[in-house]
Amino acid sequence: MDRDDADAAAARHFGEEVERVKDSGVLGRSDPLNRLFAYLAERTAADASPREIDIACDVLGRSDTFDVSQDATVRVYIHRLRGKLDSFYDARPAGAPRLLVPRGEYRLVLQPAAEPDRAIAPPEDAPARPAEPAGAVVPQEGPVARRGWSGGRRIVIGLLGLALLAGGGIGFLAGQRSADAPPEIATTSVWSPILGSGRLTFVVLGDYYIFGETAGSYEIQRLVREFSINSPADLDRYIMSHPDEAARFADLDLHYLPLSAAPALGNLLPAMTDAKARGVGRTGVTTISQISPEVVKGSNVVYVGYLSGLGLLRDLLFPVSSFAVGATYDEIVDRRTGKHYQANWSSSTRSASPHLDYAYLASLRGPTGNRIIIVSGTRDAGVVQASEAAIDPALLRAFERKAGSDSFEVLYEVRTLGHVNVGSRLIAVRALAPSGTAAPAGPGAPSFPDEAKRAR
Fold first, then answer.
1. Which pLDDT value is given to residue 216?
2. DSSP structure string for 87-145
3. Which residue has the higher pLDDT, 444 or 105?
4. In this structure, how many other beta carbons lie within 10 angstroms of the beta carbon of residue 356?
5. SS (HEC) of 142-193
């Protein structure tokens, strides 16, 4: 093969790999990240290596007076792109070629796995990833982090939940079958649409997205948790609407799960494995920060997590619900009566006094006749209580009879001592409003505190 043929073949392979990455969806819905990838691919194909200021102007819409020495936005996006490419190739065979953004350069290189560039030290333009305390992430308060937090809470990672995601939760659900799986579950109005529909069913874990604050430097100064920013795409949208703050925040691909994800999944496992054993449909596990509107529209969804972590599912649930999430995110507001139910977990769980939590369970129809089940609560005890109710056939039938509908919501008060559930009390069972109609709003206004902030 002569030189021209070799160059043509290399260009063809490069273009095919670029399209493969684009089609995979690994870059997500972030417009800046997709534009950056396409821009680097185009410039590389033209045998040109752009400068940082070129990317700032051509991709991010900055002016030619943009000071790259003071604003790390371009380097943050390059770092994010490297991470997305790593995620893509981690799932591919070891012998496959890979696209790289070499350190110190702003171009794409197609390189076989036999010549890896990943074992080298992190690129000098990458924001530093802070050391994480074992088993915990402690978000700090700040201009963004302050919204939605009453004091600085310690958030403990649900280790089993993280292991499920890292190791492929589908195998966990499909590969085990509980000996005491209640066969009656399949006959209830809650589970029969899932076990008998043949649709793809997703167990969606309510994770929380954490990003870094750089304070305009190359190093991460602290971790930030903001309820209205629950994914890299949300962070991109925030940065695009607040361009002056672009250099302050960086995506670190950090997420955490509540501890209740593990026991709640353990309670729900029999119903899900029953679906697999029947050979009806398929089951997948994902997180609320990764779920797409297409999944919610066409698949069955079983959400497991805090009410505050519902993400885009809130847009389906709360327009037909008679409840809302209160200002502290540990509070449930009855929009019919104006009564507030406040979990009191702000005090230490080591106290000898009982704590109050609230469990919330809902079953509703999705946009295309799919079924959505919400297994939730204000904190861990509430989520576990909701998961226990969700697999009790007698309770599910009683809820449906009392509500007079197969689309209903249930609220429990849960009393705990430390982390031990010592009792519960049923507060309400109500039919959800028919799809397309609004539930009685009552004294409550928006369904979430961050919605109220945006309204102002």
1. 61
2. HHHHTS-TTS-EEE--TT--S-EEE-TTS-SSSSPPPTTSPPPPP--TTEE-----TTT
3. 105
4. 18
5. CCCCCCCCCCCCCEECCHHHHHHHHHCHHHHHHHCCCCCCCHHHHHCCCCHH
Q: What is the pTM of this model?
A: 0.60
Written as six digits, the tokens of 29 are 């819905």
Instruction: Provide the CB-side half-sphere exposure for 414 (13 A, CA).
Output: 28
Q: State which amino acid sits at residue 110.
A: L
Q: Is-contact 453 146, C-beta < 8 A? A: no
Task: List pLDDT tens digits, range 256-297.
Answer: 888 889 899 888 877 666 545 554 556 788 888 888 888 888
Using CA atoms, how far apart are residues 355 and 348, in angstroms rounded to an integer? 9
At 320, is the secondary structure helix, strand, or coil?
A: coil
Dihedral sign from CA coordinates of 416, 419, 421, 424: positive
Model pLDDT for residues 142-168, shown as the tens digit of each residue: 333 333 322 333 333 333 333 334 333
Q: Which amino acid belongs to residue 146?
A: R
* Owner of token pair 């502290």: 328
* Residue in the block written with tokens 């026991």: 263
Checking if the pLDDT of 46 tops 90, the result is no
d(CA 132, CA 196): 43
Rounded Cα distance between 248 and 206, Å, is 26
Parallel/antiparallel/unpaired status of strands 420-431 and 408-417: antiparallel
Beta bridge partners of 423: 415
Secondary structure of residue 428 in the 3-state scheme = strand
Q: Which residue's structure tokens are 């946009």?
A: 367
For residue 32, what are the contacts with CB-CB under 8 A and spacing of at least 6? Answer: 59, 60, 77, 236, 239, 240
Tell me the one-letter amino acid at 286: T
Output Rg (C-alpha) for the chain, integer angstroms: 24
